[in-house]
Amino acid sequence: MPKLTIDGIEIEVEAGTSILQACEQLGIEIPRFCYHERLSVPANCRMCLVEMERAPKPVASCAMPCGDGMVVKTNSETVLKARKGVMEFLLINHPLDCPICDQGGECDLQDQAMAYGFDRGRYLENKRAVKDKYMGPVIKTIMTRCIHCTRCVRFINEVAGVPDVGAVYRGEHMEITTFVEKAIGSELSGNLADVCPVGALTHKPYAFTARPWELRKTETIDVLDAVGSNIRVDTRGAEVMRVLPRVNDDINEEWLSDKSRYAYDGLKRQRLDRPYVRKDGKLVAVSWADAFAAIAAKVKGVAGNRIAAISGDLADVEAQFALKELMGRLGSANLDCRQDGARFDTSVRAGYLFNSGIAGIEKADVILLVGTNPRWEGTLVNARIRKRYLAGGVKIALIGEQKDLTYPYAHIGAGPDTLQQLIDGSHPFSETLRNAKNPLMIVGMGAFQRADGLAVQAAARITGEVYGMFRDDWSGFNVLHTAAGRVGGIEAGFLPGEGGRDVHGILDGASKGEIDVVYLLGADEIDTAKLGKAFVIYQGHHGDAGAHRADVILPGAAYTEKNAVYVNTEGRPQLARLAAFPPGEAREDWKILRALSEALGATLPFDTQSQLRQRLLAANPIFAAVGQMTPATWSPFGVQGAVDAAPFVSPITNFYMTDPISRASVTMANCTEALVGPAQERTGTHG
Amino acid sequence: MSAPASDHGHEPTSFAFTQENLELAQRIIAKYPAGKQASACMPLLDVAQRQNGGWLPRVAMDAVADLLGMPRIRVYEVATFYTMYNKNPVGKHHIQVCTTTPCWLRGSDDIVHACKTKLGIGLGETTADGQFTLGEVECSGACVNAPVVQIGDDYYEDVAPEHVDGLIEALKRGERPKAGSQIGRRSSEPLGGPTTLAAFTTQADD
What we know:
Chain A is α/β, with parallel strands linked by helices and about 675 residues long. Chain A is built from 20 helices and 26 strands. In chain A, strand 25 and strand 26 form a beta hairpin.
C-alpha cells in the first residue's frame, strides 16, 4: 500500500487510489469538472491539477495513481496559478448568462469560478456559439455552455448502456450531440442533467420554474417502482418543483429513473381534492361527514364475507395496515394487496423478496432472469446488472420475452418449461449454473401473473435449491416486484385471511353478486368492469380507473404528501416524508381510515401515527429496522404442480405510464410519444 | 459546423459496399483480433469514401458501424474528427493546398491565389462541372519540400504558382501529372545538392 504525503500530511492508501481520492480521504477539496466517482476517468478538464515533487509540470490528480513516497501539494502558488489558467480557458467560450441559466446557484463552474476565476476577461475575440441539440423530451440543451467534460457521454455509454451520445468534430469545434438529433432512448436520461457540471444539459420540465435557493428540500423515497430509490423532493409552497436522487449505495447509488424523476407534474393534475358520493349515477361533491354517512348506511348490516378490500400499487404500509384492521373488525377476510393478480406464496419471506439485495447483484457470477424485463420493471436494478456486466466475468441468461436490456445475455427459453429443464439438468445452461459460485436468479411478476404462478414459484425455488442459491453465505433467489406498495402490504398482512378471497375471488364474487362492498385503496389497475353491482369505495389521490367506477370517493394523499412507510422489493422499510400538504380536503390515508372506522362503529385503536406504528411493530417487527434489510430465512415455498408452457409476458407495456401519477403526467405522455411509440413500430425490423 | 447530418441536399438514402470492397473490408477486419473489429473503423471509412466518389454520406458511416458492430455515434465521432474524411461531396479532383507555417513561409498563399484564379472558385468550393474542389489543409507532413499541394492521392511538392496552371490543365485533359517535386528535386535532398557524405550519393542512388 503506497504511502504518500499530501500538504504535509502522511497518508497510506489502497493501491490504485488516485491522488484526488486520497485528497478526499483527507478532506482536502480538489476542484473538478470531468471527474465523477462513478464514471471512467478521462482527465480532460485539467481543473484538478496539483503539484507533485520531482514532476516537471502540475499533474491531473484524478488520473494520477498514488505512488510510494510521493510528495503532493494542493495549495501552493503553482497549483493556484495552474487552476486559474485552466479556469480562464474554460470561461473563454462559456457564455456569461448565469442570470438566465437554470443551473445558476448550483453550478460547478459558477462555484469554482468564485475560487479560481479572474474578475475580468482578457479575451476580446468573439466567443464561439453552438447550435442546441435535441436530446428527447426531458433534457434541454444549451450547447454553447458546454465545457466538454464528456461526463454525459460517459454516463450514457457506461451506466445507461445506450450509446446515443458522442462528441463530434475536434478541438475548438468539438460538439456533444446525440446520434443525429434523436431522443436518447434511455430510462436514465434525466441523470445527464445531474452529471452535467454546467447548464448545458438541464431538466426540460423544470426549465425556468424555480431557483435552487427558494426551494424547500425534503428527503424522502420514490414509490413509482418497487426499487424504493432515495429521492429529494424540492417544493415551493405546496407545489413539487422537481425530484432529484439522493445517494444510497445499496439501492439507487446516485441515479434515478426518468419516471421517478419527471412524473411529478402528474401530482398537480387529475387530483381528488374533496369527497364525492354518487347520486343518481353522478358523482357529487360532499363533506367528509356525508361521505362517511353514505358509507355507513351501505356497509352497516352487510355480512363480513360480502365485504372486500383491494389495495393498489402506491398504497403505504400504514394505510394498508389500518384497512386490514378495519376489515378484521367488519368480519371480512377478503383482502389482497396483489391487485395485478399475481399468484405467489407469501408464507415464506424468502419467497417474495429480493433476497440478495440490489447491491448483492455485484457479487453474482451467473445471473438468470426469469419472466422479467428489469429495464422497465426496476430500471435501477437493471443499471446494477449492467454495472456487474461491465465489471466482467458474469454470464447472464434470460427466460422470457427478448428485450434490449443494455447488456448482452443468452436467451435460453421463453416459458416455465425451461425451468423444468434446468431442474433436471437437461438444458445446456445447467452446466454454467452448476459451475457458478454465486448464482443469482431474478424472477419478475411476468412469471407470477398467470394461473400457474404458484407452480412457477415452486419451480423457481427448486431451481434455486438445485444450483445452490439458498446458502448460509449467499441468497441468490430474488423476486423483482413492480409496485412500491406490494411488499409493504404483504408484510403488513394485507392478504386473504382464513377462508378469504384473493383479488381473483373478490372480482369474481363481485361480478356474481356475492360481494356487496369493495373498498379500493388506490387500486386502479384492476378490471373495474368486474366489480359488477358492488358498492365501491375508492380511497386515493387521482381520478383514475378506480375513482371512475366508485360510489364514494375519499381523497387521500400522494407519496409526497404524507409521512408513511414503504417497503421496497428487497424488504427494506423506508420512510416517505411529507414535502407538501395534500390538496383541498384530502387527508393522509391512515387518518381517513381511522375516521371512517369511527363512523362505522368499529373504531380503530390508535389516534396518532406513532400509536399506529407501535401496533404495526407489534404485528411485524421487521418494520423496526428502517432502511435495513432483515434477512429472510429459507424454507420451502410455492406449490409444486403442473406448469403451463405458455411463454412469460412482462406486465409493463409502457414504462412511462404505470400508475395514476405517471398516467396524469404530461412529461410522461411526451416520453411515451417520443420513445415508446416509435420503438413499438420498429419491432420486427430492428435487430 | 453542424451535426454530421449534412444539409447540402445530396445525402443519398442508402449505401452498400460493392462485393469487391466488402471482401477488402473483410480482409482489413481480419487483421485485428476477434472482438476488436472496431479497430478497422478508419480503413473501412476510407474504403467507403473511395467507393462513394470521395466523400462520406451518413448512410456510409452507418454501413461501417453496422458492419463492425459499433454504435453509430462512435463512427460519426471518428469521421468528424478527421478532416480527411469529407462529409460533403467533393469534385473529381480534390485539390488540397497546405497552408500551415512552413508551406505558408514558402509561399502557399500565392498557390491558393493561383488555384482560385485558375478555377474561378473559392476555398471549400467545387467548380460547376463537378471536376475540382479546392481546399486548404493543415500540415500535410511534407514540409521539407514546401509548399505542397495534395491532389487526390498524390503529393505535388515544391509547387510554385506557375505550376498550378499546368497541373490543372493536365487534370482537365484526364492525365495524371507526375507527382513529387515539381522542380526535379530528388526525394528531399538539399536544393544545392548533397553537402555531406557526397562520395556515397552515387551508390545510394535509386
